Amino acid sequence: MCTDDVCEFTLVVRQARTMTYTGSDGKVNGIEILKNGSLQDKYSLSQGDMDGPIVPVEETITADGVQRNVILVNDQFPGPTLEVMEGAQVVLTVVNKLYREATSLHFHGMYMRGVPYMDGVPYVTQCPILPMHSFTYRFKAEPAGTHWYHSHTGSQKEDGLYGAFIVHKNGIPTTPSLPMFLQDWWHDDFNTIDVDSAFMEHRGPGRFYIPWQNRGFSFDGNELTALNFKSALINGRGRYNNNSAPLTRFEISSGETLRFRLIHAGAEYTFRVSIDAHSMTVVANDGHDVEPVQVQSILVFPGESYDFEVVGDPFNSGTYWIRAQTLWAGKGPDVEPEDRLQEVRAILAYDNAPTDEDPNSAMQTCTENSPCRVLNCPFPAFPAGSNMECIYVSDLNSTEEYSLSDESENEEYFFNFGYQIGSSVNGRKFATPKQPLIFKAPYDITPCEATCETDGCTCTYTAEIPLGKTIRFVLMNLGFGSGGHHVIHLHGYDFRVLAMGFPEYNETTGRWISENADINCGNDNKCGMPSSWNVARPNLNYNRPPTRDTVVIPSRGYTVIEFRSNNPGFWLFHCHQTTHMNEGMSMIIAEALDKLPALPYGFPTCGDFTGTEKPPGGGSGEATTDASKGQSSVTLVELEQIQLIIIIVVSAALSATIAVLAVVVYNGRVNKSKKEKLETPPAAPKSLEDTVIMED
Length: 696
Ligand SMILES: [Cu+2]
Fold this sequence. Notes:
Its EC number is 1.16.3.1. It is an enzyme of class 1 (oxidoreductase). By secondary structure, this protein is mainly β. The protein has three domains: 6-19 and 61-173, Cupredoxins -  blue copper proteins (Immunoglobulin-like); 178-391, Immunoglobulin-like (Sandwich); 407-595, Immunoglobulin-like (Sandwich), CATH 2.60.40.420. Strand 38 and strand 39 form a beta hairpin. The longest helix has 21 residues, at 641-661. The radius of gyration is 25 Å and the shape is globular. The site of copper (II) ion (CU) has 5 residues, from loops.
């Protein structure tokens, strides 16, 4: 843990293979898992040496026991846990040693106040960090709590590019805590799945695409994801098909209170986490303290975090299963029952428990007299007779007061997250800008035309908000494009959760019947814009509502959030379910554009690979090789010649792809939900140099 005022870190990002081992002779061999769980060098096995070298588990990345690519951070998966004190200045250099891909790092939950260009979103707040280049993030660690860092480029997070970022409160002694990362896991790189997905613009062959009728559904009649479940990991470990791969083990002593920092770093599947024979006391969500609530399990969506405490029972000994199960209940919208347990496990081990045996503990039973409490239901209730009681996140109480500001000072916005034209917000699929927005006008974006309101479209959807107001977002999941729960993350902020609305449902089965009727979102049932409250606004809870940075919108329902605008910048606002985000369920909250801080001297520009020609469409992508720019925080990592050749070839291919994809930039206005608008690009394109403000 760094307790200094300035904390410096270097994170080296590189690709590796799971289930391989580099011997003392430098040779890389595959690994076989023996029945007793030990790992043996495959080469020695192939030589008939059945007692050949046993590979220490800490010297390999086993994942779920199947060999595939993985991204390591400082040779670790998950990446190292970084711990700093609140208010510390963080200086963190990312060294990109991925041969084929650019990258960027987002610090999930950090405000980045005054430094919106450190938020890590490519083409919004910075240029991507090219292979063999590095970039240094500099920001203040605030707010305190459980946070995490992850790649915000492509789907690298899903392949391992993430880790915990813990900010400790000043003046409060730190107690032992353990990150617990959840992740769904496939046996291909996730970008292979993306490329192969029928959802993406390029429409691949759809190897991973499952028709609607065959997808996994939860009992409430909502689709989980279009991707078949394959496997899952807790802190980077799991077992595929009940093999004997090593699992993550958490040590606890009798009488000890252990704090877990549970974070869902995965892509698609929601997990319900429980520990056999132990209750969990939830003390924080998304890093923000709540009044303690004792539950038997927590539903965790991608991007969310929960801190919970477990007490080591003096009467317990040995080992217990920690279980994370998906919400799978059956196939298709009619939820045809199918017996498929989708689960990953870890181990809670008391002192002196045997290390070579699996627990034989049983899952908690929930009875009428002693029902199980489940935190974060995205549906109104579990089926009758399941003896499970829902606690919604909107029921949690923050430890900090919140008061209603003058209602006339409020600005209210309605955003519908759904599949009206595929994953989109208010009927708009997000088009990534071609130059980072943080470079300011002229913006190189795909403007939203007026027809987006009715027809839907792909564009750089942006809503501007003013500074110094109370901003209320009504997050909807309504209309014919609803049908799955979404989990929405706002960059640069945390917010209070004031209300959640659910659909009408069948109390016996728990299945939805009709969508929530509180909101009028137009006659066409597309729920694009504009929307309004149908009757009076529902009761909003101002009695210490919970503070979060990521929140679920129940399918066929809504969630109301509120925050005070105090952070000029371009903030990405998106669903954290990867296939949804990558298909376009994403938008920009642009705040106080006249008050954006100047970019630091020498802030890296993107360039266009060719160095001479302007890109098609007369955009603003001039190459920036001007030495007068002075010191840049990008540096070229020393290269072997062969690596350089690979990069040049890949760059050329990328450049060609970009040229093909480049869209004519319209001079039309940016379409948005409120009265203000982004500056209209001037008729004559300016060079990029003019858009970067240099500080003396
Ligand atoms: Cu979503």
